[in-house]
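Input structure tokens:
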């Protein structure tokens, strides 16, 4: 009886919000753990947000994204470094990013130039492809948060992409999809912020990629 009551309460909570727009695209094919390809340490670029396919290394940019605040990108950077097992020193990467033009160069060519400038063999390029902040509060939201994050590993020497993981998550009310019960309970039955979804995505990506 208690379980039924709890479930009913959760469903009632979920009914306060409309389902999120299906902004996140389906994840692309995921890479095997990079250690299997001899990649054991990578330099790390700071998170950047892309708004068109020309800025993305490959894949699609979902429409309708908001601009992620600088503080949120910084939080993602902090989460990424905390989640990695062995990040290589990358102090020169931001300096090199500033010296290589964003426009007029293919995305892969640009990141190869940045990695070459920084003197690294492998460069992890994390990008925000979609960002939608929660509208409303933790107990009721008329538009829950959603994010799409891409993680690319560029082999600077071979001028190629050797690893990729896409995390696409848009929170929905429990009433819209009971299969999200585990996630809903893990988030303490609340509608979380986009930065919270981003933290989950960083942790999942590093685990799946073996970094």
């Amino acid at each position: 009886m208690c379980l039924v009551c709890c479930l009913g309460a959760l469903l009632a909570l979920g009914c306060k919000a409309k389902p999120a727009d299906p902004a996140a695209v389906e994840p692309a094919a995921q890479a095997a753990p990079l250690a299997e390809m001899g990649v054991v340490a990578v330099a790390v670029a700071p998170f950047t947000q892309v708004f068109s396919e020309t800025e993305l290394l490959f894949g699609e940019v979902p429409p309708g994204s908001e601009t992620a605040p600088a503080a949120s990108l910084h939080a993602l950077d902090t989460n990424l470094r905390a989640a990695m097992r062995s990040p290589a020193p990358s102090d020169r990467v931001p300096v090199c990013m500033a010296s290589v033009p964003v426009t007029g160069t293919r995305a892969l060519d640009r990141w190869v130039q940045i990695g070459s400038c920084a003197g690294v063999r492998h460069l992890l390029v994390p990008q925000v492809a979609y960002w939608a902040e929660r509208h409303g509060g933790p107990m009721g939201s008329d538009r829950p948060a959603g994010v799409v994050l891409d993680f690319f590993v560029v082999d600077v020497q071979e001028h190629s992409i050797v690893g990729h993981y896409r995390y696409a998550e848009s929170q929905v009310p429990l009433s819209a999809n009971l299969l999200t019960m585990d996630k809903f309970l893990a988030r303490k039955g609340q509608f979380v912020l986009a930065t919270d979804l981003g933290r989950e995505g960083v942790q999942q990506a590093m685990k799946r990629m073996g970094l």
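Residues 1-29 have pLDDT under 50 and may be disordered. Strands lie at 42-44, 48-49, 87-88, 122-132, 135-137, 140-143, 146-155, 160-170.
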